[in-house]
Amino acid sequence: MKKGVERTLVVAATLAVLVAGAGAYAWSGLYDIGADTPHWKPTYALLETLRDRSVHARTANLAMPDLDDPQRILKGAGQYAAMCTGCHLAPGMRDSEIRPGLYPQPPDLTRQRVDPRAAFWVIKHGIKMSAMPAWGSSHDDATVWSMVAFLRKLPGMTPEQYKAIVAKAPPDDDMDAGDARPAIGHPGMGDMSGMDGASSAQ
User: Fold this and answer.
1) Where is this region: Disordered (predicted)?
2) Residues 43 and 25: beta-carbon distance below 8 Å
């Protein structure tokens, strides 16, 4: 019984020292918070694991709508063009003005396929200590799902296909009149024949 109490006291004392040490380190200002100074590799690996497991735990049972609905995809194309290209690029873009200064570097979604449930959660809720905002504060779930639907079509899409689908996208009702939007126009739904090449790349 006495040994058990002693072990508990040792564990408690060790934890107290670790917490105090972490607090002292944070207070000292020794940590370089600059975005141009990368994390140590173990720190980066830990943060990636924390992010991935957190998202997985919150999306495992998430119900999805029909992500192949052409109208949903079209709406997502307009949303993506309006909100996402600065960080995640568009077909034909090599870089943007803001992207090189971001850490961690946002994924190039023209090349990277995403898990739909994880994409929905990340778009809606954002990611702490990154440049990813929580779009759910200004966009409803249906709009977020439309972005996910479009993301499934984006990898492998040519610049011409991208420009064509964005031109057909309906106006973004969630944006203020003064917000930026590509001046391509939105002539209506039309058909999705120009998406065949991109759709087959799923």
Assistant:
1) 170-202
2) no
